[in-house]
Specification:
The chain is built from 4 helices and 7 strands. It has a 7-stranded antiparallel beta sheet. It has a domain at 9-42 and 82-153: Alpha-D-Glucose-1,6-Bisphosphate, Chain A, domain 4. The protein is an alpha+beta fold. The protein has helices at residues 24-32, 34-40, 123-133, 135-153; strands spanning 13-20, 47-53, 60-66, 72-83, 87-92, 98-108, 111-120. It starts with 12 loop residues before the first strand and ends with a helix. The chain is globular, with a radius of gyration of 16 Å. The longest helix has 19 residues, at 135-153.
Length: 154
C-alpha cells in the first residue's frame, strides 16, 4: 500500500486576513518605515531594534526582536517585490526560512483588507515553526498590535 497524500500550497502556509480601519497608504507606511514598524511588530510583549530597513527589491530589513523572556531573536529579511501601496513580498532569510506576501486591498471608506501569507519550503518546516515559535498565535498577536497602533495614529 502506498501513501498517496497530496500536499497543497495551503499545507505549507500560515495566513491571516483582516479588515483594517486604515487606508492602504497608511498601512504601507506602518509596514515600510522603521519609525512605525518598530512600535508594533511581533507578538505581545516583544520590542524591536531595527538595524537596517531598505525597502526596495533586493533591500534588507535586519532587526532584533526582544522577547519578554529576555531572549533576542535576530531576523534578516530581503525584499523581493514591492507594489506601493498594494503588495509586499519578502523572504525571511534567517531561520525559519519562508516567503511572506502581504496584500493591501482598498475597500474604500478608510478600510483596507490586509492579507498576510507565510509560505514555507515544506510542511515539516511550517509545523516546526508552529511548534517552536507558536507562529499562528504570534501572527494574530502581531496583527492585533498593528491594529492598536493604527488606532493611535488617528
Amino acid at each position: 500500500m502506498t501513501d498517496e497524500r497530496v500536499i497543497t500550497m495551503a499545507d505549507r502556509e500560515i495566513s491571516e486576513t483582516r479588515i483594517v480601519n486604515a487606508s492602504r497608504e497608511l498601512l504601507w507606511k506602518v509596514w515600510t518605515e522603521p519609525v512605525h514598524i518598530t512600535q508594533w511588530w511581533g507578538p505581545t510583549g516583544f520590542t524591536n531594534t531595527t538595524e537596517k530597513m531598505d525597502v526596495r527589491p533586493g533591500g534588507e530589513w535586519t532587526h532584533v526582536m526582544h522577547g519578554p523572556d529576555g531572549r533576542d531573536y535576530p531576523n534578516r529579511i530581503v525584499y523581493v517585490e514591492l507594489v506601493k501601496p498594494e503588495k509586499l513580498v519578502y523572504e525571511h532569510i534567517s531561520t525559519p526560512f519562508h516567503r511572506t506576501t502581504v496584500l493591501f486591498d482598498d475597500l474604500g471608506g478608510g478600510k483596507t483588507k490586509l492579507s498576510f501569507t507565510m509560505t514555507f519550503e515544506s510542511v515539516e518546516s511550517k509545523q516546526w515553526t508552529v511548534d517552536k515559535f507558536k507562529a499562528e498565535e504570534g501572527l494574530r498577536q502581531t496583527l492585533g498590535r498593528m491594529e492598536v497602533y493604527l488606532a493611535q495614529q488617528g
